[in-house]
Write a structure and sequence with these properties.
- There is one protein chain.
- This protein is an alpha+beta fold.
- The chain has a domain of 97 residues.
- A 5-stranded antiparallel beta sheet has the order 1-2-3-4-5. The chain has a 3-stranded antiparallel beta sheet with strand order 6-7-8, with helices on one face.
- Strand 1 and strand 2 form a beta hairpin.
- The longest helix is centred in the first third of the chain and has 46 residues.
- This is ComGF family competence protein.
- Keywords: Membrane, Transmembrane, Transmembrane helix.
């Protein structure tokens, strides 16, 4: 009365091999998702940073442009702001303090501002990943107060 079937050891080995295969596939999928989201996050961060500078909520105008410092005046809040940083670019209010982080993942001190005309500034940034990005930001014209 012998019946052919899997032994207990064969069954356990099959389960172990199946679980290892499934585990490796899930690790590969998580790695691919993380890689894709990281590259998209840095691009999205960059465009959000530019949008914040050109926002109608602030209506920033140029006061002074230095290589690693951008002085702005908010026509909406009637306050002076300074855009600067090292690993993070952030806005600080010159009257009353406080700061707003705008762009993370900047290679330490590898960014610059260049004034093109009375409303436009070229911003160049090297990200931690080594990717260099640059864009021209058009701010509001100086208020005639």
């Amino acid at each position: 009365m012998k019946q052919t079937a899997f032994t207990l050891v064969e069954g356990i080995c099959a389960l172990i091999i199946s679980s290892l295969i499934i585990f490796n596939i899930s690790l590969a999928i998580m790695g691919i998702k993380k890689t894709n989201s990281a590259s998209l996050d840095s691009t999205v961060d960059w465009y959000l940073f530019l949008h914040e500078l050109e926002s109608d909520n602030h209506r920033f105008e140029i006061v002074q442009v230095q290589n690693q410092q951008l002085l702005l005046f908010s026509q909406a809040a009637h306050r002076n702001y300074e855009l600067k940083g090292s690993n993070t670019l952030y806005l600080t209010c010159r009257q009353g303090g406080g700061y707003l982080p705008l762009l993370d993942g900047v290679k330490s001190r590898e960014y610059s501002f260049t004034q093109l005309d009375s409303q436009r500034v070229l911003i160049e940034v090297t990200r931690i990943s080594g990717k260099k990005v640059k864009s021209v930001v058009k701010l509001y014209p100086p208020s005639s107060e």
